[in-house]
Structure formats: C-alpha cells, structure tokens
Amino acid sequence: MPDLGRRRPLSAQYRFSALGTHWRIASPNSFDPEIRRQVDERVAEFDAAWSRFRSDSLVSRMAREPGTYEFPPEAAAVMSLYRTVYELTAGRVTPLVGAALEHLGYDAQYTLQRRPGVRATPSWDDALTVTGSSITTTAPVVLDIGAAGKGMLVDLVAELIDPDHDGRILVDASGDLLHRGPVPCRVGLEHPLDPTMVIGVAELRDASLCSSAVNRRRWGADLHHVVDPFTGEPVRGTQATWVVAENTALADVLATALFFTEPSVLAQRYPFSYVRMSDDGSIDWSPDFPGELFL
User: Fold this and answer.
1) Which Pfam family, giving just one, matches this sequence (predicted)?
2) Range of the domain at 106
3) Closest CA to 28 of 183, 206, 159
4) Other beta carbons within 10 Å of 288
5) What is the DSSP annotation of 183-209?
6) How confident is the model at residue 183, as a pLDDT?
7) What count of other Cβ atoms lies within 10 Å of the Cβ of residue 198?
8) What average pLDDT does range 51-61 have in this prediction?
C-alpha cells in the first residue's frame, strides 16, 4: 500500500471495484457525486467493450463471429500501443493471446482446467485490421488486452478526476498506480514468493508504476497468466517485473514485455525504468529506477 506522506495528505478516498479488482482514488479534495458518476459510467463502458468474461461484450461477440466492430475511442490508442510492443517483442506480446489463455483454463467460466493439446495464436496481420477505433477480424478471435487494459483504464479515470483535484491524485488499481502531485508516494515492491515481504521501495512522483508477477492469477501446479503465444505455455525464467513510465498503459504493457525481451530493446522506443526478478531470485534493474532495492 502506498505511503501518501504527511505533509499534504490525500485524505479524500473513493473506493470501488472494476475489472475484477479493488480500486482506490485518493485526493486532497472530496469527490463530487458527478465525478463519481462519470467514473462509474466510464468503467462500465470499458468493461462492456473489452471484457472477455462477459458474454455480451464486444470482444465476446468478436469471438463468436468475424466482422467489423466499433469500440470506444480508447481503442485507437491501446491497439497502437499493442502494435508497437508486438513488433518490439517479435509478436510475443499480442492481444490475440486470449484463446491460448482460455485453452489453459483461464476462461469466462474460470474452469482453471487445462484442455488437451496446444492452442495456436494467430498472427496480427492474418487476424486483425485496426482503423482508428474500428477493429475488423477475418475469423473469430479471442481478443485480450490484459497486458495494457487495466493501465489504460487507470489513465482514463485519472483524466476525469485530475482537473477538479488540483493535479494531485493517486489512482491505485490493485497495484497499477498513477500518481500526480509534488509530494512523492513510497510504494513497496512485493516479493513474488512472499507477499509479506518487499524487495524494495519505489518513490513515485508524477508517473505510473505497474507490476506483473506469476504468483498473481496462478492456478494448477504450474499455470499462470503470462503466456508465450508461440508455445501456448506460460512463460518461464522471470518471476516478476516492475515498470515506472509516464503513463499507466505504457507501464502496464512494458511490465509484461519484460518477460519476453530485454529492456534495451524496449528502450529503443520508450523511456522507462524497471526492476526484474528471475526465477532463481536474481534481480536486474535500471540505474535510474526511482527508489531503492533491499538486496
């Protein structure tokens, strides 16, 4: 849980649930009922478009039949971000990994039961055409924007709140964080093998922090949600990543990308700092990471 500091506390709190997780927004000002209504509507609109756990969502319709689907305006930004990272990771971070996740049991019914065989993930150019906020498919596909979606929603929510709160807010979507304001908040980096411990602390100021770890959304003996689309299997070699970037959608998708490629490749396109823990417990990090590690 972030430490918001004592000098100028962000004492007003707005708590709600979204995308299956608990959210908290903190600010020095109370939350106007109209702002809350706008946030609730934006969250509902996002969920109705992008949730593959709802039978009535746009992505669920897309999974049943091909065609052209008109998504909310954020589709242009999130799919453009995905496309760039898709290319940087040679196709390993893709919004088309949904079918592979369902094959492993992470499906709308939460069966958590692996099916026989391997589910192939189609290539972007064979399956999708994106034009602005319109997405056209050539066959039924299971779209999953989980590597960037929650981060994107954090940014959208912050845009609704920030103008009325003096540019001082903290949006905490169960660990995906956006901070705005002059006083940094200290954020513990949870140890992926022991949630009662931290491996370090980040000093977050006017930036976003996201993490990805294989101990979250894990089931069975060795299954988790970070899946290599080339093999259909959960990726091995990395336990957890933390990324600080200028916005939450970017921090979110880069935290996943670090499971598949080296930071130097991603840094060719995006400025960010990171910490990464391997399966053997070793840690690598960027020299400019804002905080300290307890090694």
Assistant:
1) ApbE
2) 12-293
3) 183
4) 10
5) S-EEEEEEETTEEEEEEEEEEESSEEE
6) 87
7) 15
8) 96
